[in-house]
Amino acid sequence: MEAASLPAEGPKPKTSEVLREFLSKYGLIAVLLALPIYYGIQDLSADGNLTRLGNNLMDGLSNGAIWALVALGYTLVYGIIELINFAHGEIFMIGAFTSFAFWTEIGLTPSTGTAGLVGGLLLTLVVAMLVSSSLNVMIEKVGYRPLRSAPKLAPLITAVGFSFILQNVGVLWLGASQRAVPDLIGSQTELFNILGISVSRGDLLAIVATIPLVIMLTAFVTNSRLGKAMRATAQDPEAARLMGINVDTTISLTFLLGGLLAGAAGLINTLYQTNVWYLQGFTAGLIAFTAAVMGGIGNLRGAVLGGLIIGCIQQISDNRIGNEWTPAVIFAYLVLIMVFRPQGLIGEETREAG
Amino acid sequence: MRVRWLAALGCLFGAFAVGVTACGSSDSGGDSGGSSAISGDTLTIYSSLPLQGTSKGQSEAVISGERLALDQVGGKVGKFKINYVSLDDSTAQNPGTADEAQTGQNARKAVQNKNTIFYLGEFNSGGTKVSLPILETANIPQISPSNTAVGLTTDEPGADPGEPTKYYPKTKRTYARVVPKDTIQGAALATTMKEDGCKSVHIFNDKTTYGAGLGRNVELAAKKIGLAVEGNDGTDKTSANYRSLAAGIKADCFVGSGVTGENYVQVFKDVAAACPNCKLYGPDGVAEAAFTDPKEGGIPADVAARTQVTVATLSPEEFKKQGINKAEKFFADYKAKYGVDQPDPYAIYGYETMSLALDSLKAVGDKANDKEAVRKQLLENTKGRDSVLGKYDIDENGDTTLTDYGLYTIKNGKLTFSKVIKVQGA
């Protein structure tokens, strides 16, 4: 009785919970800004300007744009079937190899005229996207669909298996050493300079090509009928099935979209870095997967944000700390973000997480 | 009664264990000197080099040189027939350099073959770090045609802590090399930069035994002759690019202390773009078509035009100018056998490696099947050797006393001899 007359008051949150919430909100921002602020202050006191940091961030954004495209493939698949598609990095590698092989076949060289180069590269883009997406859909049909109701470890191991198979295809195709490819666009040629921050052709290509792809993907997933089917399947596949959605087709569509993006990223990466390597997919996959987790796996905007952040961390670390320490720095960041905010930067609850 | 039974059984096991141990020690004792003679009249010489990836061309040149030397003696030394076996120390997944696991397997294969009298290799110093202790334990003499890492033979600057002792578990030297160590190459690079008017240098190293060691030697030699060293940064092979790392270069000269297989084409491309006025220098680790020739995936022509490479080999003309007649004959014989006018710089080292091995066998006569006698001959009696590379000794550490380095430019995707470097600051 007495209790009923007392004003309703929830249990007082524990100090550790308050601290955790505070760190989750502000600690993460502090962690992310720590490097740029530290080096910004250092630059201001040493050079009197922020040009060096600006150049680091410019390089970071262009590198990060490529990681973002690859990360979208991971996050799409995870969002819908909660599978870490370990073969996705290799789909990206196959996209890069296809691009190089195709443009060599049609005779593109650095001396090809602008019109020929633009036309040839657009054709290459279409071919790379088609090859990568077909391969991704085929892998889903052959390797993952039969294991839809199997324990989660089974498709995961299958994904690892496909990853190794594709790596070996890469070795047989172009050998196991890194291979320099012709610099068709003059990737490192400076286009313009703003306050000492240099923007190269490669930077522009990576950013300009990535933005429309991400916008188109987001618009497709948000507004189209098939996109809505994808989201419905991601939320509850059984309910989606009962509502008349063909879940298998929707999942295939997800793999198709991931493959298309990986193929595009393969071409952009080859033009940007001017080299290909059979292990480039493994390395990129690791970074892109980290980006997807950092952004909040299953969240498209999170994957893009994660990719851009990792790109910037990479370039700042390369330039200030040392290239050999960069992988350690990136993964240290991942650990910190997971500690402060396990759901990632713009994390959404998945079926698994509840 | 039961206790006595157990004691008897214990004695039996004890005796068995002692017997086994005795057998084991007798085996290794034989290898370490007492009786190390090979039975029969066939001796095996192994060659272990990376036959896949970027170093394939160099390795094949070494093998061609080795085969030429062996053919010239009719495949025999005295009464002994020589069986030559070429092994690949690289793998499909780890090409262009010595794969540690594969190298260890090659060395063990040589040890298990009771007829092994010489092991020629590895091409990469990192590989020799693996094979040397295995071969030394079995007292098998080893000659490398190309290793330059300081720590394989001495503890001079450039060596890591514990080197070279850790490579010689039985404390007996079994290893020699026919190229000057990186103390010399580091000084050759520093000397060249000084002569080219460099004021400061920035070094990237690939973190391998070879690259990191040479990087330290370049640093030491550069400081010694008054060049400012702006940095010596390690590079990660798996990096997509090195643009931001290269953006930190403030020096007017750059040394890429690494091998092609460690992504050094990309390193040079990114440094050339980030530092458009820098003079670029590479060591013998990039002296191969996979680095110099764009058609083979090497650096583009505009970067090649700014790059110079040091290799211990001189040109046929320079050998002639120095009066080294054996070199002249080697180039003629090589052309006659393989139809190649300008062989890869490493072909002559392959030839000299095999010649040194065969001459060591010849010098001990009937004891050519005795590993200990051959080892002693190689390490203790190779003095004033008149060879295709000129006159040299093998010192007590296994190092050659040769010091000349050749400087090469890159023209049309090929290394072109420029001049001899007389080193300062070594």
Shape descriptor of chain A:
globular
Pick out the low-confidence regions of chain A. Answer: 1-7
Low-confidence stretches of chain B: 14-34
Q: Largest interface, per-chain counts?
A: A-B, 35 and 39 residues
Question: Count of helical segments of chain A?
Answer: 13
Q: Let me know the number of strands of chain A.
A: 4
The gyration radius over C-alpha positions of chain A equals 22 Å
Gap between N and C termini of chain B: 76 Å
Description:
The complex is a heterodimer of chains A (354) and B (426). Chain A is mainly α. Chain A is globular. Chain A has a two-stranded antiparallel ribbon. A two-stranded antiparallel sheet of chain A has the order 2-3. Helix content of chain A is 73%, strand content 4%. Chain A has helices at residues 2-5, 15-46, 51-81, 88-105, 114-144, 153-174, 201-223, 225-235, 237-242, 247-273, 280-295, 300-321, 326-340; strands at 179-180, 190-194, 197-200, 275-276. A 7-stranded mixed sheet of chain B has the order 8-7-9-10-11-14-15, with helices on both faces. A 6-stranded mixed sheet of chain B has the order 2-3-1-4-5-6, sandwiched between helices. A two-stranded antiparallel sheet of chain B has the order 12-13. In chain B, a hairpin with a 2-residue loop joins β14 and β15. Chain B is an alpha/beta fold and 426 residues long. In chain B, α2 packs parallel to α13 (347-363), α3 packs parallel to α4 (125-137) and α5 (182-195) crosses α6 (209-224). The interface between A and B is large, with 35 and 39 residues.
